[in-house]
Design goal:
Elements lengths: L4 E8 L6 H4 L5 E5 L7 H14 L2 E5 L17 H21 L4 E4 L3 H9 L1 H14 L4 E5 L3 H8 L3 E7 L23 H14 L1 E3 L5 E3 L4 E5 L5 H14 L3 E2 L4
Helix pairs in contact: 2-3, 3-5, 4-5, 5-6, 7-8
Length: 249
Amino acid sequence: MIGDKIDINCDVAEGIGNEAELMPWISSANIACGYHAGNEDLMRATVALCLKHNVAIGAHPSYPDWENFGRTNMNFLGDQIEQIILKQLTILKKIVDEHGARLHHVKPHGAMYNMAAKDPDLARHIALSIKSFDDSLILYGLSGSAMIREAKQVQLKTANEVFADRTYQPDGSLTPRSQHKALIESEGKAIEQVLRFVKEGTVKTLSGEIIPVQADTICLHGDGAHAVEFAKLIHARLLEEKINIQTFG
């Protein structure tokens, strides 16, 4: 077995309304900061749920793209990217402080995440903005991607993220949502992929190849049609396999 523990993270506070149902089955939450979804009231309610269920609190910053749920590719200068990230971290940190809690990690959202996985310059500016805000924060980024490499270069802590509900390409990238079979909607396939991540350190790509991945944290999308079901089933199966579910780091 590659590992005997894993973090399960979930994108939340995006207006879906299933946070209370999800919290018992995850160990880290990525809270939308208002640029692609959410608002301060939703952030407050979600932080309170995290504390109730002992779930680590993370920020889920995005490009300013409410209309398209943060899934539109955008181009900004490096200092603009840093300001976009810092503004969102500041919004959430104020709410976290109100609750006497602490911010644990940052996971970029949507197009920002996917672009930074391949663009070292964008990835570096994201990492620098996080480090300047709080150098104890952990960057959750696509396993083996430019995000992880650039964060390590600036000595920011990282967690290699893999996805329970997305398919993979041979280069280790996620299949774009615009393509057929980008999403995994079968409970059995999601569980099979998770067990392969944790027990073997590999993933089977959409074309059938087996490639290596490092799995520190597994993502479930809170806006997925089967989010709560997947979370419950994956949580239960991991425990059956004697794999502990705990916050990364």
